[in-house]
Design goal:
It is built from five helices and seven strands, in the order αβαβαββαβββα. By secondary structure, it is α/β, with parallel strands linked by helices. The chain has a single domain, classed as Rossmann fold. A seven-stranded mixed sheet has the order 3-2-1-4-5-7-6, sandwiched between helices. β2, α3 and β3 form a beta-alpha-beta unit.
Length: about 200
């Protein structure tokens, strides 16, 4: 697997030797960042995301999502995972991209993350498929102050997996790419109004 766009395009990612870490496929990653970069509803303060964004990569695994965001113009990435094996992969991939100065790597459980140093503009979440970790982690991150009110959250789950979206968030987009489903959310539904949509499959 490789970075598919931006300044690190074509650089190879160190991959896990076991099956406990399931990196986001190149296809799903490219689709995710194409949507972020071109959909006007998902723009950040400085233009298309992830440009200049402070990004959280929760359930980081190999770090592929966060490094893809950094490659495409994010200002800083924090990688969050509670598995030592995953964090070793992240550290190696960050080193290979010469990106240590733009990253933090934290061993924490996304469902019990503690307090952040600052809130984030863009949250990327790729929890293990089928374990119903998305909603608890999202609620914990929101309650502990990791998510800016205007932030975009993207969750990758299995294509047929049900996700209970916490009431603090509204659905923006819901798309399937092969075995993956990408769910785009924004915090504070009362602030932004009920204009959610679900894209057709």
């Amino acid at each position: 697997m490789r970075i598919v766009g931006g300044k690190f395009r074509g650089k190879k990612l160190v991959m896990p030797e076991d099956t406990q870490v399931r990196p986001t496929s190149d296809r799903a990653r490219e689709a995710l960042f194409n949507i972020l970069g071109h959909d006007p509803e998902l723009r950040g303060e400085n233009g298309p995301l992830p440009r200049d964004a402070i990004v959280l990569d929760a359930f980081a695994g190999t770090g592929a999502l966060g490094l893809e965001a950094l490659s495409r113009g994010a200002e800083h990435i924090t990688f969050l995972d509670n598995r030592a094996e995953s964090l070793k992969l992240v550290e190696q991939n960050v080193k290979n991209m010469n990106a240590r100065s733009s990253t933090d790597i934290l061993r924490r459980d996304a469902a019990n993350p503690g307090k952040p140093g600052r809130p984030y503009d863009l949250i990327l979440m790729d929890p293990p498929y089928g374990e119903n970790l998305s909603a608890p982690a999202l609620s914990a991150l929101e309650k502990n102050g990791w998510i800016k009110p205007e932030a975009i959250v993207v969750i990758e789950v299995a294509a047929k997996e049900n996700v209970d979206i916490p009431s603090e968030f509204r659905l923006l987009k819901d798309r399937k790419y092969g075995a993956a489903r990408l769910i785009f959310l924004r915090q504070n539904p009362d602030q932004y109004g009920d204009t959610s949509q679900t894209d057709p499959e």
